Amino acid sequence: MSWFQLPLGPLQTNWYIQTNDQGEGIIFDPGGEVEKLITWLRDRQITPLAILLTHAHFDHIGAVEDVRNTFHIPVYIHENEKEWLIDPQRNGSSLFIPGSSIKAREAEHLITGEQDLSIGSFSYQVLETPGHSPGSLSYYAKEDKIVFSGDALFAGSIGRTDLPGGDHQLLLDSIHDKLLELPEDTTVASGHGPTTTIGHEMDGNPFLSGF
Question: Where is the composition biased (Polar residues) (predicted)?
């Protein structure tokens, strides 16, 4: 398996795709710049199988509808944010981008709890990591030693919790109980900024110094 990162959209949200040797891929958080994203996929002859959302803030879902319609693929999201895709107020687009209305159809698949998720040859351990938002998820690919953590954990920082549904202590608990339990050499593919590792954040993240 291989994976790629590409910052997209108004907040340069990291879009990720994990691919296999057959040219298939799983998309994480297509945040915007849909033409750039689709061109990137077609230039590399990658066939997406699904869109996995870590959460449904507007900067993570801006290209969902166009990508889903172009490749005829399903969307997965936590049930706690099932209405955020269709509601610009809940996903924040109407608040942060005046006059904007970012939305998409309801997701084909609702994730209702922690589980093992298999799509084609791709397998993930789905971790519930709320705090940044009520339905935040992290997708851990054990064999590839990478976790797609959305806006839960960043290099040297953690997700903001001052948005509707945010909870600072809950986020810290999610990071401590779920993400820091992963092997220290696990790559953390964050929603913004550079990648990091679990071990690096355990040793040097100032927000986690009490753990």
Answer: 187-198
3-state secondary structure of 188: strand
d(CA 179, CA 175): 5
Amino acid 197 reads: T
**C-alpha span between 166 and 178 (Å, rounded):** 17
Tell me the C-alpha to C-alpha distance, in Å, between residue 76 and each of 53, 63, 104, 127, 193.
Answer: 6, 14, 12, 13, 23
What is the 8-class DSSP label of residue 173?
H
pTM reported for the whole predicted model: 0.96
- Tell me phi and psi for residue 113, to 5 degrees: 175, 175
CATH number for 2-208 (one of 3.40.50.720, 3.40.50.2300, 3.60.15.10, 3.30.450.40): it is: 3.60.15.10
Helices vs strands, H then E, count in the chain: 7, 14
Per-residue pLDDT of 1-49, as tens digits, reads 899 999 998 889 999 999 999 999 999 999 999 999 999 999 999 999 9
Task: Tell me the β-bridge partners of 118.
Answer: 123
Report how far residue 78's alpha carbon sits from residue 80's, in angstroms, rounded to the nearest whole number.
Answer: 5
Here the tokens at position 49 are 């199988």
Question: How much helix, strand and coil, in percent to the nearest 5, is found in the chain?
Answer: 25, 30, 40
Neighbours of 162 (CB within 10 A): 6
- Give tens-digit pLDDT for 154-171: 999 999 999 889 999 999
